[in-house]
Specification:
- This protein has one domain: Rossmann fold, CATH 3.40.50.
- Helix content is 40%, strand content 17%.
- An eight-stranded mixed sheet has the order 1-2-4-3-5-6-7-8, with helices on both faces.
- Helix 1 links the parallel strand 3 and strand 4.
- The radius of gyration is 18 Å and the shape is globular.
Length: 295
């Protein structure tokens, strides 16, 4: 369903009974609400959560921001590496206000919040902007934004910024996405090739927003103050991270845990930058446990 949030149109999926514990789930860079696997959602529903997923701005079926143009990601990357200011069409704080607007539209004063990758960065901003509205915080494969923390290798960075030779060739876009997901995925929990390709095809048929990905990427690069603010977070927090994550290397998780006073840390051997099905019960147990500690 479409809702109005923070003055823009967002696509939202609200599952579970209204009496369930609200769990707002925020996806990562260029990903859609379907990036949260339906099987994982079903396991969360079985634990009594009311699961609320949404497409971030510039992704999926939510409002596009093409009128803001396309940022120069090459320049932004150099500025980020040199610790220089980066300009972006909008900020991760703006995206956090979108998330809070989802709660407003659904009439929810509070929720547990779970974010993956860029979604975890947005979730941190949500907790900083409106701590009274966040009952617990689950942060998966994300970072603090500190520029001193190791980032992806040049190979991974190049793959992330690559484009299919012909962006209008569906098969070529599928192949490029498949190769990226294989590169950053969990070495100990590889998804079957046919299954992964089908998920990619379903996602791309639903929406393709390459320019939106670039604007979101610029927002990540421009987000240079969050790390110093994280000591203010008093919400019960769980950090889940794989020790084989090539996109957000595991030192980021340890750095994040040091900065958030209430954080506990779950480092998973063999997990990369994805949500493998064999780990869903572990994710659910962790989210349930931190939610209980948050009341």
């Amino acid at each position: 369903m479409q809702i109005s949030s923070n003055g823009i149109a967002l696509e939202v999926e609200d599952q579970g009974p209204p009496s369930g514990e609200p769990l707002l789930m925020i996806m990562g860079l260029g990903m859609q609400l379907t990036g949260w696997p339906e099987g994982l959602v079903q396991q969360l529903l079985a634990q009594g959560f009311r699961v609320i997923r949404f497409d971030n701005r510039d992704a999926g079926l939510s409002q596009a921001f093409d009128h803001l143009g396309v940022p120069n990601i090459g320049l932004a990357s150099v500025q980020h590496l040199l610790h220089l200011p980066v300009r972006s069409p909008y900020s991760l704080s703006d995206m956090a206000r979108d998330a809070l607007g989802v709660l407003d539209a659904l009439g929810l004063p509070q929720a547990h919040v779970c974010g993956a990758s860029m979604g975890g960065m947005i979730a941190q901003h949500v907790a900083l902007l409106a701590p009274q509205r966040v009952k617990s915080l689950s942060l998966i494969m994300t970072n603090s934004g500190a520029r001193s923390v190791p980032g992806p290798s040049m190979r991974v960075r190049s793959a992330l910024l690559s484009r299919a030779p012909n962006p209008h060739d569906f098969a070529a876009v599928v192949e490029r996405t498949y190769q990226l997901f294989r590169l950053i995925g969990s070495p100990a929990y590889p998804a079957p090739e046919a299954e992964l390709r089908e998920r990619i095809k379903d996602s791309l048929r639903r929406s393709m927003r390459p320019r939106g990905v670039l604007r979101q990427l610029a927002a990540i690069a421009a987000d240079n103050r969050r790390a110093g603010q994280l000591g203010r977070i008093q919400t019960p927090t769980l950090i889940i991270h794989g020790d084989a994550d090539p996109l957000v290397p595991v030192p980021a998780a340890h750095d994040l845990a040091r900065r958030i006073p209430t954080a506990s840390l779950d480092i998973i051997p063999g997990m990369g930058h994805d949500l493998p099905e064999p780990l869903w019960p572990r994710f659910v147990d962790g989210i349930r446990s931190v939610a209980r500690s948050g009341g």
